[in-house]
Design brief:
Layout (H helix, E strand, L loop, with lengths): L1 E5 L5 H10 L4 E7 L4 E8 L2 E7 L6 H7 L5 H13 L6 H7 L5 H20 L5 E6 L15 H18 L9 E4 L14 H9 L6 H8 L3 H13 L3 E4 L16 H12 L3 H14 L4 H13 L3 H12 L8 H14 L3 H14 L4 H25 L1
Antiparallel strand pairs: 1-5, 2-3, 2-5, 3-4, 6-7
Helix pairs in contact: 3-4, 5-6, 6-11, 8-9, 10-11, 10-12, 11-12, 12-13, 12-14, 13-14, 14-15, 15-16
């Protein structure tokens, strides 16, 4: 059975989640005319076993060479061994057999390749997807590996969350990096990592970050992070061309359905599921306060209170005008009470009651405030005694 449609109607995160929950086996093809790109992901009972993208077709051997994990001689020996045998053995497995690379390193590199492709596809907000159920024993994988789709979705959410920080200095992938003007404050020698030198050497004043990522065979996420570091340290500057492609913009979609699924899962006591849905909301829009609030509540239910407090802190950055502001103050109050900061808890709860003076939750908040005041008075009396 084929599953297909435009990404504007069913986001790529939802597609992956659907294939995971239904334990599908087959091939997912994702195309984008705006990006002039195409990706393919193979699933085996809901788990990802292979992924490739047209803009970054570098095979495993080239990746291992670039990473310094393999020599040219070992690669040639592996290819010669593969050509001499007709048993269909994967190159990665042959490289392990001849001692050129360890099985653990092979798995790490293959996993990294797959993740890079999947995270790239997860940033697409336009295009078309098509999934065909089929036998995947002929998947062009270099090693046997099965990656949890749920873990990919969680990590993808974390990465897109990191985009929100990067976006302060790298607004989109269509900006063109140029070398910054040297002044007296700059050090004479640059202390850069090899991957930073690689990006620096690719800067020609004409290509944007996406083109540089393609030319180096690196993920757009990695190039954006490196560019962020180079901009922060004053090594490069970013210029916006007169016209930036729509495809270059950083991804934003409606996180509302994910927030609703998170709330429903939380009310049924399914904390992990609620957190996964909240992470998808954050991935859709890192600045969405309700997504952060949903994640904070799920983390609190799971007993991860420090992580919950961090999500609340980020949610509060939305500001007082955000519709989620009262609910954020409510949760901040409970978080403050949990860590023993009674004055902060009372302040947060008072702000909540200004907008929600009646109702069951308001009554509970007043009860909590009365308990907090009694606790404060008891502590003050004990200190005075």
């Amino acid at each position: 059975m084929a599953i297909e449609g435009p990404l504007r109607e069913l986001g790529i995160h939802d597609v992956f989640q659907l294939l995971d929950l239904s334990r599908k086996t087959g091939a997912l093809r994702v195309t984008s005319e705006l990006r002039d790109n195409e990706g393919t992901v193979f699933f085996d009972r809901g788990r990802v076993i292979f992924a490739a993208i047209r803009s970054n077709p570098h095979p495993l051997g080239a990746v291992l060479l670039r990473a310094g994990k393999l020599s040219e001689a070992d690669l040639e020996r592996g290819r010669a061994t593969q050509a001499a045998h007709s048993d269909g053995k994967r190159l990665g497995e042959i490289l392990v057999d001849i001692g050129a690379i360890t099985a653990r390193e092979l798995e790490r590199q293959v996993r990294s390749q797959i993740q890079a492709v999947v995270f790239e596809l997860m940033s697409w907000r336009e295009g078309f997807f098509s999934f065909e159920e089929r036998d995947v024993s002929d998947a062009p994988a270099e090693a046997s590996i099965r990656i949890s789709t749920e873990s990919l979705l969680m990590e993808g959410a974390r990465r897109i969350d990191e985009w929100s920080r990067i976006a302060d200095k790298v607004p989109n992938l269509g900006v063109i990096p140029v070398l910054a003007q040297v002044n007296d404050d700059h050090p004479t020698l640059l202390d850069l990592l090899p991957n930073e030198w690689e990006v620096l050497s690719a800067i020609d004043g004409a290509r944007d970050l996406r083109a540089i990522a393609t030319s180096l065979g690196r993920s757009e996420f990695d190039i954006a992070k490196i560019a962020y570091g180079l901009v922060t340290t004053g090594v490069i500057e970013l210029r916006t061309p007169e016209r930036v492609s729509v495809s270059a913009a950083l991804p934003v979609e409606d996180p509302g359905p994910h927030v609703e699924r998170s709330a429903a899962a939380l009310s049924s006591g399914r904390g992990e599921e609620a957190l996964a849905a909240a992470r998808l909301a954050i991935a859709a829009d890192p600045g969405h306060a309700m997504g952060r609030l949903a994640a904070a509540r799920a983390l609190g239910r799971l007993g991860r209170f420090s992580d919950s407090a961090e999500e609340l802190r980020r949610a509060a950055q939305a500001g007082e005008g955000d519709p989620a502001w009262p609910e954020i103050q409510l949760e901040l109050g409970y978080a403050a009470a949990r860590r023993g900061d009674i004055e902060a808890a009372l302040g947060n709860w008072e702000m909540y009651l200004r907008t929600h003076p009646s109702g069951f939750t308001a009554d509970r908040v007043r009860q909590a405030m009365e308990c907090a005041v009694r606790m404060r008075n008891l502590l003050e009396a004990h200190s005075g005694g």
